[in-house]
Q: What sequence folds into this?
């Protein structure tokens, strides 16, 4: 994941360089129109996603890369409603649809209609299984494993780990946990001695960790799923125990806490999660497909990793209560495409 | 009596025509075989669900479980009906029978339908999650073929709407049993005095609703190619709005199957029209409500004029 460091750029200074490159061998897309079909806008991650789309796609329209890049959000987060929205986009004459889907399967009929009508469909985050669409998926299991790999590099002697899981029964929770356990199998100096559900929320995580802590031996590391690291740290502090190595998940409060600890006692850790800016990656992938580039149907989103070196930069660019974000440029999309080949 | 009060179907037809004209003006591409199908194919399951709701409203009840029930039918269709058609068919039949039973229980124990159906919506939802815990399944091949068929002259969505309207019109407005069923909504006591069993009639009305609910679920799977447990939750409110928009009333067995189908088409079209207008999603639900209120107001105004005349 060498590129993820490179990806840590703030919004705005992205497009210009990529343009010349795109024009050199690929078809012109300046008359093409791209639409974003989004199923939900009710949390900070989605708001950041829509903002990124507006910034990146809006700039691309201003630069004449594409003719239009309009964002549509369904009002009720329902698959049938989004299917109708997609069919409307076909009628509106869009050339490509970038899709964050309400259901991985229930939109397949509408997506097929779009493909049959000659549209390019690129799904991301909430992907669809219809084979004619492109998928920009998140490898959550790899994210879980990466956490344990990092702990192994920092704590070669190993020790006891506490696992904080997400919302029970959700696919993402299963995947990340699977990755974490695969990592522990590989680095057998670690043992997971406790596991609680933090529901990706700081307050829930804090309560859950506080509840299990008295029954646990010494903990050297905490593996998390994002949105729960700060709560875990508070629980350790309240119990009067040493703060272990907690892997964080890019939330602003987590980064803030990390920076404070670093300044106070040189605390070192790693933070990783998926950036809402993945919408801009999907936009450029759609643009590349329209331009005639050979793009594999299944692509993987790089995680956004924040390290000790990039902490200050990330913290400065993340609004309070939000999530660290990156904006992907055309070259990033081309890199992701090349990696998948 | 004025023309409009005598023929309550005129207002829904005019609403649909006006909206269709406005949509064609905004989006000329829609004015084609292909375009009409894209505009209306997702209205077919909604029209079937609206007919199902109409059966319940016809006997003065209301069904808040319809969306969950259609979702459940869709889940059964995408799993059992696809893998083991025999068992799938049996389950769907059992679902229809359980709807009839629900109607009988509501009448026999004199329970409020709104409470019973609200409760049942959780049962249907739970069963759907049990069958399909994560989105998936596949549409049976023949169903997919049926829902994507390209008939000559008019697209599938239009043909299907006409067939649904014609069949239900014959059943409810023209047949003897249909007249008695409407009579249950109009004056249950006199129907009972005439020697009919209201219990059986209510069970029949609910059974018919179950049948059309199942058909809605099947049509939806044929279009979507797969199902999930929440796929049709918004059909509950859409179907009620569709019945009312199509000239139906909450009391007195005053319903119109043709109107209900037109109401479903109008609601679907209204959503597309608002999206073509590029209205922000925050406003879209409100605007859909405004269209509904507009049509109802028009109906009220015409009826009062009719009464004066």
A:
């Amino acid at each position: 994941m060498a590129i993820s460091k490179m990806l840590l750029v703030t919004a705005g200074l992205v497009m210009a360089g990529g343009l010349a490159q795109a024009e050199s061998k690929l078809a012109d897309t300046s008359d093409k129109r791209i639409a974003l079909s989004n199923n939900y806008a009710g949390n900070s991650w989605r708001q950041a996603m829509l903002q990124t789309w507006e910034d990146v796609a809006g700039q691309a329209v201003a630069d004449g890369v594409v003719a239009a890049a309009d964002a549509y959000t369904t009002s009720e987060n329902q698959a049938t409603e989004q299917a109708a929205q997609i069919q409307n986009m076909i009628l509106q004459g869009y050339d490509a649809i970038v899709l964050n889907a309400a259901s991985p399967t229930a939109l397949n009929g509408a997506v097929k209609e779009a493909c049959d009508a000659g549209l390019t469909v690129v799904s991301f985050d909430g992907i669809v299984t219809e084979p004619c669409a492109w998928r920009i998926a998140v490898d959550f299991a790899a994210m879980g494993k990466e956490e344990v790999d990092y702990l192994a590099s920092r704590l070669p002697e190993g020790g006891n780990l506490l696992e904080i899981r997400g919302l029970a029964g959700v696919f993402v929770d299963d995947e990340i946990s699977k990755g974490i356990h695969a990592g522990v199998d590989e680095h057998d100096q670690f043992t997971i001695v406790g596991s609680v559900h933090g529901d990706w929320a700081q307050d829930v995580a804090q309560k859950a960790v506080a509840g299990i802590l008295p029954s646990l031996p010494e903990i050297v590391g905490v593996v998390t799923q994002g949105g729960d690291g700060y709560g875990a740290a508070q629980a350790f502090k309240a119990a009067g125990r040493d703060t272990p190595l907690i892997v964080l998940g890019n939330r602003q409060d987590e980064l803030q806490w990390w920076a404070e600890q670093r300044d106070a006692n040189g605390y070192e850790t790693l933070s990783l999660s998926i950036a809402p800016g993945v919408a801009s990656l999907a936009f450029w992938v759609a643009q590349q497909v329209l331009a005639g580039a050979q793009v594999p149907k299944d692509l993987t989103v790089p995680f956004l990793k924040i390290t000790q070196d990039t902490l200050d930069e990330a913290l400065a660019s993340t609004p309070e209560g939000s999530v660290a974000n990156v904006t992907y440029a055309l070259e990033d999309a081309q890199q992701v495409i090349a990696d998948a080949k | 009596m004025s023309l409009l009060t005598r023929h309550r179907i005129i207002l829904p037809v005019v609403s649909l025509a006006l909206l269709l004209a406005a949509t064609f003006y905004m989006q000329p591409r829609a004015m084609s075989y292909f375009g009409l199908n894209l505009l209306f194919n997702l209205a077919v399951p909604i029209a079937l669900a609206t007919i199902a709701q109409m059966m319940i409203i016809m006997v003065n009840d209301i069904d808040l479980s319809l969306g969950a029930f259609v979702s459940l039918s869709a889940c059964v269709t995408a799993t059992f009906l696809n893998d083991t058609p025999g068992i799938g068919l049996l389950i769907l039949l059992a679902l229809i029978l359980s709807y009839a039973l629900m109607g009988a229980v509501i009448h026999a124990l004199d329970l409020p339908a709104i409470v019973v159906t609200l409760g049942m919506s959780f049962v249907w939802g739970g069963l759907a999650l049990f069958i399909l815990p994560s989105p998936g399944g596949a549409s049976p091949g023949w169903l997919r073929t049926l829902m994507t068929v390209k008939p000559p002259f008019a697209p599938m969505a239009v043909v299907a709407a006409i067939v649904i309207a014609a069949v239900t019109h014959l059943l409810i407005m023209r047949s003897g049993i249909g007249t008695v069923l409407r009579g249950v909504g109009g004056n249950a006591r006199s129907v009972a005095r005439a020697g009919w069993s209201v219990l059986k009639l209510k069970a029949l009305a609910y059974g018919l609703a179950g049948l059309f609910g199942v058909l809605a679920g099947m049509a939806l799977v044929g279009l979507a190619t797969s199902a999930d447990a929440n796929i049709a939750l918004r059909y509950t409110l859409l179907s009620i709005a569709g019945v009312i928009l199509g000239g139906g009333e909450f009391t007195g067995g005053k319903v119109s199957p043709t109107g209900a189908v037109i109401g479903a088409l109008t609601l679907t079209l209204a959503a597309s029209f608002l999206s073509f207008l590029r209205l922000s999603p925050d406003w879209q639900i409100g605007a859909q409500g405004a269209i509904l209120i507009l049509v109802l107001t028009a109906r009220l105004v015409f009826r009062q004029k009719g009464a004066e005349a």
Residues 281-308 of chain B form the longest helix (28 residues). Chain B touches chain A at residues 27, 29-30, 34-35, 38-39, 41-42, 45, 134-137, 220, 223-228, 230-235, 268, 271-272, 275-276, 278, 281-282, 284-285 (CB under 8 Å).
